[in-house]
Amino acid sequence: MIPTPHIEAKLGEIAETVLMPGDPLRAKFIADNFLTDVKQYNSVRNMLGFTGNYKGKRVSVQGSGMGMPSIGIYSYELYNFYDVKNIIRVGTAGAISPDLKIRDLVIGMGACSDSAYAKQFDFSGTFAPIASYELLESAVNAARAKGAKFNVGNILSSDIFYGDKGIEDTLKWSTLGVLCVEMEAAALYMNAAKAKKNALCMLTISDSLVTHEKTSSDERQSSFTDMMEIALESILAL
Ligand code: HPA
How does 123-151 read in b/e, with b if 16+ C-beta sit within 10 Å? Predict the structure, then answer.
């Protein structure tokens, strides 16, 4: 299955740990600003992927696109066809907890979802998609070492950005302590579970469904950069 319909890399060109932003240009930003000895391995559909070194550790960065169908494709191919062991999504989310402010860092321990992604497994109950404990612990250690404030908890992966039911329906998840909403983590966690691999989702809050605050593009860039540094430091321990 290599190359796949979506990734043109040869076997061995992708590292065992992959950082995965939604936006492929963020993957390029990470490669350009944090990695050395960079080689681009994918340009199919402009979903850019690069492999390089961070402080001597080999790592890849790969865009996922938006939503669970898209990250479902890229993570499936990386885990099952390219021998990737760890995928760390680095993205943005909307706060649904009143305790979160824009630019805050959230590490997703579990991912609730309104999507049908889990139906393929045909369980007679609900599966709880969770992060890899090893990746979670490494991320927490790296955040502490940097002196960064962080929140670890449950997040919501939604299929719907512009919903007919309005934001009240999304905010209801906060009654069970769900922190924020994004659109990818649950599918990533399910693909990792099925492939017996590791996944983690780290998010910066780009907007709040509670206060309606939004980050400026400069704020998004700087909070993303802070999170990237934590994600990259966390993989040194793996
Ligand atoms: N909803 C879904 N995904 C998001 C949001 C949001 O409000 N903000 C950033 N990613």
Answer: eeeeeebbbbeebbebbeebbeeeeeebb
